[in-house]
Amino acid sequence: MVIRPRTAVIGAGMAGLTCATDLRAAGHSVVVFDKARGPGGRMSTRRLALETGEAAFDHGASSFTAAGADFRAQVEAWMLQGLAAPWAAAGPGCFVGLPAMNTPLKAMAAELETRWTCPVAGLSREGSAWRLEGAAEVEGLFDRVVLAIPAEQAAVLLATVQPAFAALAQASPSAPCWSLMVVFERPVESPLAVLTGGEVVAWAGREASKPGRAGPEAWVIQACPIWSRENLEITAEEAASRLLRGFEVLLGRASPRSVSTVAHRWRYARPEGPPRDVLWDPETGLGVCGDWLGGGSVEGAWRSGRQLASLLTER
Ligand SMILES: Cc1cc2nc3c(=O)[nH]c(=O)nc-3n(C[C@H](O)[C@H](O)[C@H](O)COP(=O)(O)OP(=O)(O)OC[C@H]3O[C@@H](n4cnc5c(N)ncnc54)[C@H](O)[C@@H]3O)c2cc1C
């Protein structure tokens, strides 16, 4: 009888879900844990019920590209399943989840054993096995643990159990990003659905211009990394009003009255380092993947998850 290792995957973003999907396909027993209420991570979609209808915002990654043939094949498979589509307004070669950014991740998560609202507070060894600390403790022991979370958060969990990996994670900082979700009472007068390049606002996009979306005049407005870092600790209200002003500068005119504004602070939005190999310690069964090892993009996160799964399933 073949005994398959029991693996805990911490993080249900693109990296963790890709790794878990590949492990499961190879016959491994996998449980995915995430502190959030559902899958997506930085590819999440936030929904807001308004009198004028439901607004949906891809308030993390607004689109993604597929430079490598391997990820292009994956995106094509998602498109055939109706889970993703090109988004012309963002430029050639840009894709989004359909009808929301998190759709491909939801599809992966639906095939997996998952635990939501389940933050993993620490890792400890029990004999040759792993125990997860926090709400996940009741799940018992695991033969292997995969960390698929931002570098800064991985560094905390790795500190006591794998200091060498923790040091690498600590040396991999991410740029923050303030992201504003705004609904205007009438359409913004702009020939373009995507605007880029301001000093405060780096990027702004009309959500309804994406394929498969409807609803009120919702925009996502992302601040520049430098501005976000300098203003990381301001309140969400202050960020909202300053980003709206920055949007008007980019637009070159006043914007319509806003009926709803919600600013979200991504402390660890985009890792700044180059792609590198995933981390894997076969002695203890501890692996690390995530966009910070994959070059800081959706594609990099996907590739790192795949790379780690392939190491874990090597004979
Ligand atoms: C504002 C913004 C704009 C972006 N724009 C683009 C873009 O245009 N193109 C592009 O390619 N990429 C973009 N990105 C980056 C892209 O979203 C990420 O590279 C990718 O989604 C990261 O995936 P991941 O699986 O590595 O991590 P994540 O998506 O961060 O997933 C990690 C998961 O781990 C969970 N978690 C963390 N700690 C714990 C814990 N202790 N216990 C349990 N769960 C935990 C989190 O809740 C999260 O769900 C953008 C990101 C942001 C924030």
Describe this structure in words.
With 315 residues, this protein is an alpha+beta fold. It folds into two domains: 1-43 and 102-172 and 273-315, FAD/NAD(P)-binding domain; 45-101 and 174-271, Polyamine Oxidase, Chain A, domain 2 (Alpha-Beta Complex). 28% of the residues lie in helices and 31% in strands. It contains nine helices and 19 strands. The chain has a six-stranded mixed beta sheet, with helices on one face. A five-stranded antiparallel beta sheet has the order 14-15-16-13-17. The protein has a three-stranded antiparallel beta sheet with strand order 5-7-6, covered by helices on one side. The two termini are 16 Å apart. The model has no long low-confidence stretch (mean pLDDT 96). Flavin-adenine dinucleotide is lined by residues 10-16, 33-36, 41-43, 60-64, 119-120, 148-150, 153, 177, 179, 222, 266, 269-270, 290-291, 296-299, 301.
Topology:
Elements: E1 6-10, H1 14-25, E2 29-33, E3 46-50, E4 53-57, E5 64-65, H2 69-80, E6 84-86, E7 94-97, H3 103-110, E8 113-115, E9 120-126, E10 129-134, E11 141-142, E12 144-147, H4 151-158, H5 163-170, E13 174-184, E14 194-196, E15 201-206, E16 217-223, H6 225-230, H7 236-251, E17 258-271, E18 279-281, E19 286-288, H8 291-294, H9 298-312
Parallel strand pairs: 1-2, 1-12, 2-8, 12-19
Antiparallel strand pairs: 3-4, 5-7, 6-7, 9-10, 10-11, 13-16, 13-17, 14-15, 15-16, 18-19
The structure holds flavin-adenine dinucleotide (FAD).
Flavin-adenine dinucleotide binds at residues 10-16, 33-36, 41-43, 60-64, 119-120, 148-150, 153, 177, 179, 222, 266, 269-270, 290-291, 296-299, 301.
